[in-house]
Design a protein that fits this description.
Elements lengths: L8 E7 L5 H12 L4 E4 L7 E8 L6 H5 L3 E9 L1 E3 L8 E4 L7 H9 L3 E5 L8 E2 L2 E2 H6 L9 E14 L2 E8 L5 H11 L4 E11 L2 E2 L4 E2 H6 L2 H5 L5 H7 L3
Parallel strand pairs: 1-14, 3-12
Antiparallel strand pairs: 1-3, 2-3, 4-11, 4-12, 5-6, 7-10, 8-9, 10-11, 12-13
């Protein structure tokens, strides 16, 4: 089959759990029979939700789209810390969860509003001398990391059913939600890890126009191609 390299634009995909962002790129390449495909903003295998896929000339605005603010909904579980700060990691420590008032929980979340520095986890894609940190972590190594300047624009505590807390957060690029869960757990004195995560928005893009991974695997290429947002449409959406 001849490659279709005339496609340009942005495709919004609702990523399924248990797969990497690179897996989604490979599925899009096969679904559309085109080679020039990339993604904006990695989602861990644990996470679901909005993944921006850039196609053809859309890859030229990849960095621009990655720099925009993100919105997530997630669940943290208190009393358990893991080596990855999320549910995919190995359990490191278990601590009893104290009786926490809603006011105390509100205070912990409020400490992380606005500007602050966040320490990237060892299982991140940041490179140290050309090697991603997660590869060093797999070798059992821990290295010095530079804190990153991040910003939280808004947060909401959606539900408290201890030991779990459901939340929503709107944050800057480069923000680690699992580190956010880890830090809040530390502040509350019992530790925590990120149990579930879903990205719901990136810049002006929402899940309203997303295709599912199942769609990519089963729908005709023409139907998938019809969901691609053209570069002029993307420019108008961004107000550029």
């Amino acid at each position: 089959m001849q490659s279709n390299n005339n496609l340009d634009g942005v495709l919004i995909v609702d990523k399924a759990p248990g797969m990497t962002s690179h897996d989604v790129v490979a599925i899009v390449r096969r679904a559309l029979n085109t080679k020039k495909v990339g993604h904006c903003g990695t989602l861990d295998p644990l996470a679901t939700g909005l993944l921006i896929i850039v196609i053809g000339r859309g890859t030229k605005i990849q960095d621009l789209l990655m720099s925009e603010d993100k919105e997530y909904v997630g669940t943290l579980k208190l009393g358990e810390t893991t080596d990855s700060q999320d549910a995919d990691g190995q359990l490191v420590e278990t601590r009893p969860v104290p009786e926490l008032s809603r006011e105390r929980i509100d205070q912990a979340f409020a400490k992380f509003d606005g500007d602050f520095y966040q320490m990237p986890p060892m299982v991140s894609a940041i490179k140290m001398e050309g090697v991603p940190l997660y590869k060093l972590a797999r070798q059992g190594k821990t290295v010095e990391r530079e804190p990153r300047f991040v910003h939280i624009f808004a947060h909401e505590i959606k539900k408290v059913e201890l030991p779990e807390i459901e939340f929503r957060v709107v944050c800057s690029k480069g923000f680690y939600v699992r580190t956010y869960a880890f830090d809040i757990g530390n502040d509350l004195g019992c530790g925590a890890h990120l149990k579930a995560l879903r990205r719901t928005k990136s810049g002006k893009f929402t899940l309203d126009c997303a295709v599912t991974v199942e769609d990519l695997k089963t729908k005709p290429a023409a139907e998938i191609a019809s969901k691609i947002l053209s570069l002029p449409t993307v420019s108008r959406m961004r107000g550029a």
